[in-house]
Amino acid sequence: MTAFETWSHLGSVLAGLMFAWAVFKQYFPPHLRMHIEAYAHKAVGHVYPYIQITFPEFTGERLERCEAYSAIQNYLSTSASARAKRLKAESVKDSQSLVLSMDENEEVVDEFEGVKLWWSSNLIVSQKPTFSLYPSPDDRRFYRLTFHRSHRDLITGSYIKHVLEKGKAVAADNRQRKLFTNNPSSNWGHYKASKWSHVVFEHPATFDTLAMEPSKKRQIMNDLLKFQQAKEYYARIGKAWKRGYLLYGPPGTGKSTMIAAMANFLNYDVYDLELTTVKDNTELRKLLIETSAKSIIVIEDIDCSLDLTGQRKTKKQEKDEDEEKADPVKRMVKGGDESKDSKVTLSGLLNFIDGLWSACGGERIIVFTTNYVEKLDPALIRRGRMDKHIEMSYCCYESFKVLVRNYLDVESHPLFATVRRLLEETKMTPADVAENLMPKSDDEDEEACLEGLIEALEKAKEDARKKSEEEEEEKAAAAEAPAASAMTEKEEQQKLSEVKESDVR
Ligand SMILES: Nc1ncnc2c1ncn2[C@@H]1O[C@H](COP(=O)(O)OP(=O)(O)OP(=O)(O)O)[C@@H](O)[C@H]1O
Ligand SMILES: [Mg+2]
């Protein structure tokens, strides 16, 4: 038996004695009770060289679940539970898989900087009679940490901090991610209504299944990783821990798919912000402040969501609008209450991106998507605000290879050379390539799918050729048109002068 085990037994005996004391102390007069308790504490302190800290599951008057207990449970679910013989599987709220923790009255040893310590999981069963088959809500669970008193500073200083941090990290890894969408503000006032509603985020897209040029993909992944690990860096340079991405490209090139892949890669929640239901800048601010850290805030089709293309308002414009707001006549002249101030403005969005985030915690990524990058105001997309501009483009051969692996599980095929040539000659979005690669019936094999794609590519090439021919013809016709109208003008002038001459005669 080790020294700790001997002491542990002694500890159990002491615990028994204390329990007996708790039951019988009422039979002692109060002053005698105080003396006995003080003396017993001193005696135990002298003899027993170990310190114990308990972490109850519920604390406070309202018996809220203690954060430290959950963190310890998660911490022990990784390292210590591997050594425990009896485990308990629980489904914890917001957790995507079962949490395995050590069962009640189980004990495990942990080690920190060469120091040994002991964790035990305890349950005090309620003495109240219960008629239910379920455990009584009065049962009390707690973890107890025991260590030698010579390590007091190390354990209370660094070890507990380490356990809580690691436990929280495990919870973050294991948490069920969510996709949030904003509720219209007309619903915000309702009882228990929140600004965002959510569903579980289970999009299957990953960077593995995302079709794009491999070097570009690696660059984006490195950028994301660097951002995720740069907490200290951002703190040092005094910048809010956020990063903006602008994804642009034609429809069906994988912008939304990329956002899902980013969220899966970083293990972040996604806030899909629908700007058209946000009335004004104040509402926008309230919504954004309620987003949590470790999240991607997405504004899709930024060019269509609102009129965000205008320049920032000048002071005079702002003053005019304020006056208009105050004066009902001016407002009517301007076109009723449908005036601009009931909308989110570009400057409202920019101000938030620039400033407020610094105050409400970090680790947020904001992604804007658009089909028409050229329509956006340069102020919105300048570097520093949107840190990275990513062009999602038509399908290249490398992208095709990812898609064909995803859809048909094929790495190479003689028809690949034809597909390669056609992809270089014509433009087709990854969405269209994917659609053509999908087997239409059970008896359609990989060769038939590839042939189908080749046919579609040839048709797209032919269509593009016809279209460009038509455009050329239109251009030529437009160039001829002014010449023709110029002729008629000349003729008219001539006629006019002939008429004038005849008048003179
Ligand atoms: N790069 C890609 N990699 C893998 N799949 C893709 C890619 N691009 C498109 N797809 C497929 O096409 C479908 C549509 O793509 P997605 O919605 O991501 O396009 P988008 O660029 O967001 O289009 P839009 O501009 O219309 O929003 C996706 O469900 C996905 O299956
Ligand atoms: Mg999209």
TrEMBL record:
Its cofactor is Mg(2+). The keyword Membrane applies. Belongs to the AAA ATPase family. BCS1 subfamily. This is AAA+ ATPase domain-containing protein. Signal peptide: none annotated. It comes from Eucalyptus globulus. GO terms for molecular function: ATP binding; hydrolase activity. Residues 478-487 have a biased composition (Low complexity). Residues 241-396 form the AAA+ ATPase domain. The keyword Nucleotide-binding applies. GO terms for biological process: response to stress. PANTHER family: BCS1 AAA-TYPE ATPASE. Keywords: ATP-binding, Hydrolase, Magnesium, Membrane, Nucleotide-binding, Transmembrane, Transmembrane helix.
